[in-house]
Amino acid sequence: MRLGRGAPRPVALDAPSQAAAKGASLVFAPTFTSSSSGSALLTWPPDGFAIEMTCAVTDAEGRSVWSGTLKGEGSATGKEALKIFSIAGDRAAFDLLKKFGA
After folding, report:
1. Residue 61: which of 27, 88, 32 has the closest Cα?
2. What is the spatial distance between Cα 30 and Cα 28, in angstroms, rounded to a whole number?
3. Which of 4, 30, 44, 51 has its C-alpha lying 20 to 30 A from 85's C-alpha?
4. Contact in structure between 54 and 71 (CB atoms under 8 Å)
Protein backbone atom coordinates (compact mmCIF):
# COMPACT_ATOMS: atom_id res chain seq x y z
CA MET A 1 0.00 0.00 0.00
CA ARG A 2 1.67 3.22 -1.15
CA LEU A 3 0.55 6.74 -0.52
CA GLY A 4 1.11 9.12 -3.40
CA ARG A 5 0.59 12.78 -4.05
CA GLY A 6 -2.82 13.97 -3.02
CA ALA A 7 -3.08 11.37 -0.26
CA PRO A 8 -4.69 12.64 2.93
CA ARG A 9 -2.38 13.86 5.67
CA PRO A 10 -1.80 11.49 8.60
CA VAL A 11 -3.69 12.27 11.81
CA ALA A 12 -2.50 11.26 15.29
CA LEU A 13 -5.16 9.52 17.38
CA ASP A 14 -5.23 8.85 21.11
CA ALA A 15 -7.62 5.95 20.48
CA PRO A 16 -8.92 4.24 17.31
CA SER A 17 -12.46 5.34 18.21
CA GLN A 18 -11.45 8.94 17.35
CA ALA A 19 -10.90 8.10 13.68
CA ALA A 20 -14.24 9.29 12.31
CA ALA A 21 -14.30 12.45 14.46
CA LYS A 22 -10.82 13.47 13.27
CA GLY A 23 -11.53 12.65 9.62
CA ALA A 24 -9.26 9.60 9.37
CA SER A 25 -10.45 6.94 6.95
CA LEU A 26 -7.87 4.30 7.92
CA VAL A 27 -6.28 3.43 11.27
CA PHE A 28 -2.84 1.77 11.29
CA ALA A 29 -1.92 -0.08 14.50
CA PRO A 30 1.66 -1.38 14.28
CA THR A 31 3.34 -3.61 16.87
CA PHE A 32 7.09 -4.13 16.89
CA THR A 33 9.16 -6.89 18.47
CA SER A 34 12.88 -7.43 18.27
CA SER A 35 15.38 -10.15 19.01
CA SER A 36 19.13 -10.34 18.98
CA SER A 37 21.72 -13.07 18.90
CA GLY A 38 25.45 -13.45 18.98
CA SER A 39 27.88 -16.12 18.00
CA ALA A 40 30.53 -15.19 20.56
CA LEU A 41 30.19 -16.49 24.10
CA LEU A 42 31.75 -13.58 25.97
CA THR A 43 31.35 -10.51 23.78
CA TRP A 44 28.73 -7.87 23.26
CA PRO A 45 27.13 -6.37 21.09
CA PRO A 46 25.10 -8.95 19.17
CA ASP A 47 26.05 -9.79 15.60
CA GLY A 48 22.51 -10.77 14.61
CA PHE A 49 19.32 -8.73 14.98
CA ALA A 50 15.71 -9.11 13.85
CA ILE A 51 12.75 -6.71 13.92
CA GLU A 52 9.20 -7.91 13.32
CA MET A 53 6.38 -5.50 12.53
CA THR A 54 2.79 -6.65 12.69
CA CYS A 55 0.28 -4.10 11.46
CA ALA A 56 -3.51 -4.13 11.51
CA VAL A 57 -5.40 -1.62 9.38
CA THR A 58 -9.04 -0.82 10.08
CA ASP A 59 -11.49 1.65 8.61
CA ALA A 60 -13.03 4.49 10.64
CA GLU A 61 -15.79 2.15 11.85
CA GLY A 62 -13.29 -0.44 13.14
CA ARG A 63 -13.72 -3.02 10.35
CA SER A 64 -10.58 -4.89 9.37
CA VAL A 65 -9.13 -3.76 6.03
CA TRP A 66 -5.71 -5.42 6.03
CA SER A 67 -3.22 -7.06 8.36
CA GLY A 68 0.23 -8.44 7.86
CA THR A 69 3.62 -9.15 9.33
CA LEU A 70 7.03 -8.19 7.99
CA LYS A 71 10.42 -9.19 9.36
CA GLY A 72 13.72 -7.42 8.86
CA GLU A 73 16.99 -9.17 9.61
CA GLY A 74 20.51 -7.84 9.92
CA SER A 75 23.88 -9.31 10.72
CA ALA A 76 27.43 -8.12 11.19
CA THR A 77 30.84 -9.63 11.59
CA GLY A 78 32.32 -9.57 15.06
CA LYS A 79 34.75 -6.80 14.06
CA GLU A 80 31.94 -4.67 12.60
CA ALA A 81 29.81 -5.10 15.71
CA LEU A 82 32.67 -4.06 17.99
CA LYS A 83 33.26 -0.88 15.91
CA ILE A 84 29.62 0.13 15.44
CA PHE A 85 27.46 -1.31 18.23
CA SER A 86 24.16 -0.82 16.41
CA ILE A 87 25.18 -2.11 12.98
CA ALA A 88 23.20 -5.38 13.07
CA GLY A 89 20.09 -3.49 14.28
CA ASP A 90 20.59 -0.78 11.68
CA ARG A 91 20.74 -3.40 8.95
CA ALA A 92 17.61 -5.12 10.29
CA ALA A 93 15.71 -1.81 10.29
CA PHE A 94 16.83 -1.04 6.73
CA ASP A 95 15.80 -4.56 5.62
CA LEU A 96 12.35 -4.05 7.20
CA LEU A 97 11.90 -0.66 5.52
CA LYS A 98 12.83 -2.11 2.12
CA LYS A 99 10.22 -4.85 2.55
CA PHE A 100 7.60 -2.38 3.78
CA GLY A 101 8.04 -0.18 0.72
CA ALA A 102 7.97 -3.07 -1.75
Report:
1. 27
2. 6
3. 30
4. no
